[in-house]
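User: Show me a protein chain along with its predicted structure.
Assistant: Here is one chain, sequence first, then structure tokens.
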Amino acid sequence: MKRHAWVSTLIAAGALALLAGCQPGGDAKKAEGETAGKKFQIAVIPKGSTHEFWKAIHAGAEEAAAANGAEVIWKGPLKEDDREDQIKVVEDFVAKGVDGIVLAPLDDTALRTPVTAAQKEGIPVLIIDSALKDVETVSFVATDNKAAGKSGGEKLLTMLPSGGKVVMLRYQEGSASTSEREAGFLEAMTGATNVTVLSENQYAGPTTESAQAASEKLIDRFRNPDGTVQFDAVFCPNESSTFGMLRALQNAGLAGKVRFVGFDSSPKLVEALGTGEINALVVQNPFLMGKTGVEMMIKHLKGETVEKRVDSGAKVVDKANMADPEIAKLIAPPAK
């Protein structure tokens, strides 16, 4: 009899436990309890750290973390073409066991493996700025780069009402964001009356110095005996390529004589916009990009649903609108 009573007690206890586990919202309450009061550690990995663009992303990420009681750990490769270094940064954060990773991949293919490895370890990844091929992540927060590049091309066409010859200096192979801008720019050129693209296959490389060297080669290639050049306008798809081209045009005595549309902003580029050495800049919102990326990662970690794609926006800025208060915030965003 004692044995039967003991078995009955066990069965009753198991039934109570099962009933408790089946209460509506039981799993949700447990998950909420596990995250309540937790200070999430979020790794934010840029393509580099020297450009003003990344400093603004860092500032936005820090603001979002501070507002939500989280911690941002910021680390990127030393050079903006060092894929192996960025891969190692991702792997190091996985080994550290951070709660989430917000990544701007240097290469749309090379970063797939470390991102997949992070996810297998239970660390969610959210992509900002530049897309990653064939990997499902928490979300993608970036400029609509093709549309932004096309808007830069359309702006340039307004400066060539009678047509002309155009040069585009690309950034570097494997960079999805700039490749899309370049494609958008060329789409704007397609079908334009009396417009010829003289060169669109040269790459600036990752730094201002490499961009200046590539720009000087383009200028020399199309220079006339009298010192003028055979092209009327030029387009560059990011901050470093734009600054490198600006330096080359200045050194050649061509700044302000060749129509010039660039991408992104920095104090030197904004100064050149004001003097007319650059005619327009397509300016993103890197502060918002960094802020939104971290905010959405925190929401995801709390079990909330987030959008799979967020356009952080871009504006075409010229001398006429650069003093507008909203534009002024874009061309001089807070920097970390």
